[in-house]
Amino acid sequence: MKKTIFILTFLCMILSCKAQVIGTLEQFEECSMRPNHDEGCPDLENITYVKDTNNRLDQFAGTWKGNYGGKQYEIQLEKKINFKYFPTSATAWDRIIGRMLIKDSSGNIIYTSMNKPDKDTNFSGDNFQHRVYVMHFVGNYDCLESGDVFIEISKNNSNEMKLFYSQDKDGLLNPDKCPNFSTFVSLLPTDKMTLTKQ
């Protein structure tokens, strides 16, 4: 009886496993630069795992700190392997997940995602554009605060990183949820700022 249960269990495991088709971050980066990238990349459609084969993401992992516009920033970046936001996602990626702690000039916390689970940080990586890694951030969505964050390690100093935030221009503003929109200042700077690895 034990032998029959073992064989049935083994067969179920084999049937439930799908072969993983691996692509690379470089392939998807190249795809994004094609003139017809909006039409998709047919040669990459069956890929189930986008892998960081050259360990390019490793340079970003760690804790980074900096100051800008009277705010103190602490950003923790963690490399995740074979990561899916949803169990039903067709493709898993190696990507960076970020967490932030932002304080005002008096040291008061104005934003933190440090204790949030990976899927709820609202700050995660997408892919490279040459030397720059592109992440997406959502802060106060009701005030249209979402956009792309571009991070790049300095060529001359691997402990120095530049960060630039490009806020999305589209979205529906709900004045009831963001009454101070005319004076709202985004959490991240829209000019380049420098962060130092700790």
What would the keywords be for this entry?
mainly beta, 2 helices, signal, 198 residues
Descriptive account of the structure:
- This protein is globular.
- It has helices at 2-16, 25-32; strands at residues 22-24, 49-51, 62-68, 71-83, 92-103, 109-112, 123-129, 132-138, 146-153, 160-167, 193-197.
- Helices cover 12% and strands 39% of the residues.
- The longest helix is centred in the first third of the chain and has 15 residues, at 2-16.
- The protein has one domain (56-197).
- Strand 4 (71-83) and strand 5 (92-103) form a beta hairpin.
- Strands 1, 2, 3, 4, 5, 6, 7, 8, 9, 10 and 11 form an eleven-stranded mixed beta sheet that branches.
* Count of helical stretches: 2
Radius of gyration: 20 Å
Overall 3D shape: globular
The end-to-end distance, rounded to whole angstroms, is 58 Å
Q: Provide the residue-averaged pLDDT.
A: 87
Largest β-sheet summary: 11 strands, mixed
Give the ordered list of helices and strands: HEHEEEEEEEEEE
Percent of sequence in beta strands: 35-45%
How many E-type strands?
11
- Number of spatially distinct domains: 1
Unreliably modeled segments? 5-16
Determine the fraction of residues in helical runs and give it as a percent range. Answer: 10-25%
Which structural category fits the helices and strands?
A: mainly beta
InterPro entries: DUF6705
Signal peptide: 1-19
Keywords: Signal
Pfam families: DUF6705 (PF20448)
